[in-house]
Amino acid sequence: MAAYILRRMVSTIAVMAMVGVFVFLLLRLAPGDPAAMIAGRLATAEMIAGIREKMGLNDPVPVQFIRWVRDMLGGDFGTSIFAGRPVLELISQRLEPTLSLSILTMILSVMVGVSFGILASWRTGGLVDRFLAAFSALGYSVPVFVIGYFLIYFFAIRPHWLPVQGYAPIDGGLGPWFVHLILPTVALGIGYIAFIARVTRASMLEVLSEDYMRTAAAKGASSYAILFHHALRNAGVPILTVIGISFAYLIGGVVLTETVFNIPGIGRLVVDAINNRDYPIIQSVLILTSGLYVLINLTVDLAYTLIDPRIRY
Predict the structure, then answer these.
(1) How far apart are CA 198 and CA 133, in angstroms?
(2) Any bridge partners for residue 79, and if so which?
(3) What is the C-alpha to C-alpha distance for residues 244 and 301, in angstroms, rounded to an integer?
(4) What is the pTM of this model?
(5) β-bridge partners, 86
(6) Other Cβ atoms within 10 Å of 22 Cβ, number
(7) What is the tens place of the pLDDT at every residue in 87-143?
(8) What residues have CB less than 8 Å from 303, skipping those under 6 apart?
(9) pLDDT tens-digit series, residues 34-69
(10) What contacts 24+ positions apart, CB below 8 Å, involve 146-155?
(11) Exposed, middle or buried by CB within 10 Å (0-12, 13-18, 19+), for 153?
């Protein structure tokens, strides 16, 4: 196990190095001059040249890359070009709404998706199975922003049951915090519920068709014991895999959801940074997101051994 973790850590460093090179070159080679955007429309060529010199944009690209990596390894992710504040400070201020939305969405998706999948596999062709098929088609085909505006209209604008948009910090009370996150969580979670439920159903059906499951039923095991003690544990590896992948992809979906519901999270920060070509913020968020993605994959791989004792590294 220790050797496997060491190999994964080495591969993680290699992956993060490639991601760093890609992110740095992608932004530097893209059209547009951040110095000109900072200077404004009425700026002269001398003013733009001065800003470029101050930002170090006149240095060769390899020099800029080495300086960026050196500062980042030292914990300095740079200063926002437009806000004039440390990037880590800006990210930490926006972290709470994004984490709140992501964690609630995953809790909802896992609880509802796994339950749906188990029930659908238990009664194949029944009412729950047919409902899951229709729900999955809805979750896969309808974009999250359409679902978001639908929920806003029918649950916030007309009956005034829930807030239309915005975010309430958690230190202001759990009630307002939770109420403001209900609609964004449901809008973002529908697609992941459908995805997890379909994978759970397929995995459970494969396990339930095995001979030892029929043997357990012949010995008088209850439906609860068959489903949860035998089938679910043996079907757990693919379900855990898809949950890990969903959590990683969730980060991209949060950006659009935060825009629809006007949540001041990291997604909104990235959108504003892209519009303003704020290099330090874009690079830092991409690097941190990539690191989180790799960490989640590593955690899921290690968790396999807890579900299936036959897996050894």
Answers:
(1) 8
(2) 86
(3) 9
(4) 0.80
(5) 79
(6) 12
(7) 888 888 888 898 899 899 999 999 999 988 888 888 888 888 888 888 888 877 888
(8) 240
(9) 677 666 667 777 777 777 777 777 788 888 888 888
(10) 147/186, 147/187, 147/190, 148/183, 148/184, 148/187, 148/257, 148/260, 148/261, 149/260, 151/183, 151/186, 151/187, 152/183, 152/260, 152/261, 155/183
(11) exposed
In sequence order, the 6+-apart residues with CB closer than 8 A to the CB of 7 are: none
Sole residue written with tokens 């992948």: 245
- What is the token pair recorded at 206? 């494969």
